[in-house]
Design a protein that fits this description.
The structure is a single chain. The chain is an alpha/beta fold and 223 residues long. It has a single domain, classed as Rossmann fold. The protein is built from six helices and ten strands. The chain has a six-stranded mixed sheet. A two-stranded antiparallel sheet has the order 3-6. The protein has a two-stranded antiparallel ribbon with strand order 4-5.
Length: 223
């Protein structure tokens, strides 16, 4: 696995900045999906998306978070686009509550329906949250700027050796997804965890001059 390239660091608003300024910025955006400001949080598996989304949701006063791990399945790691559109995006676009069934990764089956209200800001986090089919519906796309090797290592350590085979398949699938449909080049904001907080950088200039997380134009590994 290639090492993460060195290069200019992000320029934070302030060191270890609290997330309230970012939350205010997101809440002030124009709605992007009916009455909803849909905010995507993408990045490699294990990059800290879920933790960051939870903290950002709290800074937003309890914004709902949709985890794409609950939308994907063993058979459709990235083939969940139609299900997300029918169960979540179309109802929210019409200003109606979305009713969707989360996937149980242990039982390998969909569970009871849950309700997602059309709140002013809804966060959608997971690998592929910035895919091309979803980007037109996003008010903003955030990318977790954690190196791929570091992210995958975190994920493997978190899940333990019993899921090693799953991670082998996941890594191939994730590389194939980002090779065909990269998110990072289209991100509005890069987020990096540092110390006890986060720093972020916004705008096309910041994205362009920060080294990519190896998700653009790379070849696929051999199975």
């Amino acid at each position: 696995m290639e090492p993460y390239p060195s290069g200019p660091s992000l320029e934070p608003r302030e060191p270890f900045a609290p997330l309230e300024p970012l939350a205010r910025e997101l809440a002030a955006l124009p709605p992007s999906l009916g009455p909803v400001r849909l905010v995507g949080i993408d990045g490699h598996a294990g990059s800290g998306k879920s933790t960051f989304a939870g903290r950002l949701a709290a800074a937003l006063g309890g914004a709902p978070v949709l985890h794409l791990d609950d939308v994907a399945t063993h058979e459709e790691l990235f083939g969940w686009e139609d299900r997300l559109r029918a169960q979540v995006l179309e109802p929210l676009a019409a200003g109606r509550p979305a009713h969707w069934a989360p996937y149980d990764w242990v039982e390998r089956a969909f569970g009871p329906l849950r309700v997602l209200e059309p709140a002013p800001v809804v966060l959608v986090e997971g690998v592929g949250a910035g895919r091309r089919a979803l980007r037109p519906r996003l008010a903003r796309l955030l990318w977790m700027e954690t190196p791929r090797a570091q992210s995958w290592g975190r994920g493997r350590n978190r899940d333990g050796g019993e899921l090693s085979d799953f991670w082998d398949g996941w890594e191939r699938a994730e590389r194939a997804h980002f090779s065909d449909d990269p998110s990072r080049p289209y991100a509005d904001t890069l987020v990096r965890q540092c110390g006890t907080g986060y720093e972020w950088s916004c705008g096309a200039t910041a994205i362009a001059r920060t080294p990519p997380s190896l998700t653009e134009g790379e070849g696929l590994p051999r199975a």
